[in-house]
Amino acid sequence: MPELPEVETTRRGLQPHLQGQRIHGVILRRPDLRWPIPAEIEQLLPGQRIEAIRRRAKYLLLDTAVGSAVLHLGMSGSLRVLPGDTPVRAHDHVDISLEDGRLLRFNDPRRFGCLLWQPAGETHELLRDLGPEPLDDGFDGDYLFQRSRGRKAPIKTFLMDQGIVVGVGNIYAAESLFMAGINPLREAGKVSRARYQRLADAVKEILGHAIQRGGTTLRDFISPDGAPGYFEQELLVYGREGENCRQCGRVLRYASIGQRATVWCSSCQR
To answer: Which of 20, 150, 153, 249 is most buried when burial is the number of CB atoms within 10 A of its CB?
Structure first.
């Protein structure tokens, strides 16, 4: 599933093409994706100008004066800005046509993505209880330390809780914990404030670097310009179970935490 860097890469790729454009029309080739597509998408979006393209967690929001289209790429979704006469392929479920003749096309083979509606001045229920953005100043070691008190869950599960911080999925949680030197199995409530500061710094550094490099290449993800991301080449622990740690040479260990594959170094991470 595309994680925060992939979604932010998509947002940055789309912004210069969409911001300020007026929506001409909407074509829905099916009434639902993961959930039914609200009627407001067809009824209210045409004629509106796209004022901004925002990201909240792994959701993209196309803001207009009357409300926002809320998009999630799911496991296999992609967004492309294309010429208006581009032939329709399999799984091209939604077209948002623009006044300049181009269109924004949403392709989603597995249909785990979504297209929802957020009225102006409101917050969609899926976004209401989300934690802070990991790249914001408010996300730091003090925040993580306070939120972790009394928590017995493994710190990796804690870090991936979207109510604690958004957008830190399995790949980036594993890499951040390695950089911070923290065992992913350690109880969240038993990690010190100083170590949480190292973890917050690691999350910011790794996510920021991944965004610069275009995200992590997964099987179904391609960035908006058609080029794959490059961060996968630099992964130090994720997906490397049984291989040697690039820092100390010890064989990396594997466990399932919260039904998610977890790889770490028992020497470098305590």
So the answer is: 153
CA distance 171 to 37: 30
Residue with tokens 């939120």: 147
What amino acid positions are annotated as catalytic residues?
2-3, 58, 260
Query: What's this model's pTM, rounded to 2 decimal places?
Result: 0.88
Helical (H) or strand (E) element with 104: strand 102-107
Residue 90: exposure state from Cβ atoms within 10 A (0-12, 13-18, ≥19): exposed
Which of 153, 205, 152, 151 is closest to 178 using CA atoms?
205
Virtual torsion, Cα 7, 13, 14, 16, nearest 10 deg: 140
Tokens 């901004």 sit on residue: 52
Residues with Cβ within 8 Å of residue 212, at least 6 apart in sequence: none
**Per-residue tokens: 256:** 């399932």
Coil, helix or strand at residue 9: helix
Instruction: Give the pLDDT confidence of 7-47 residue by residue, as tens digits.
Output: 998 999 999 999 999 999 999 999 999 999 999 999 999 99
Structure tokens at 262: 């977890």
**Nearest residue to 164 (alpha-carbon basis) of 200, 132, 203:** 132
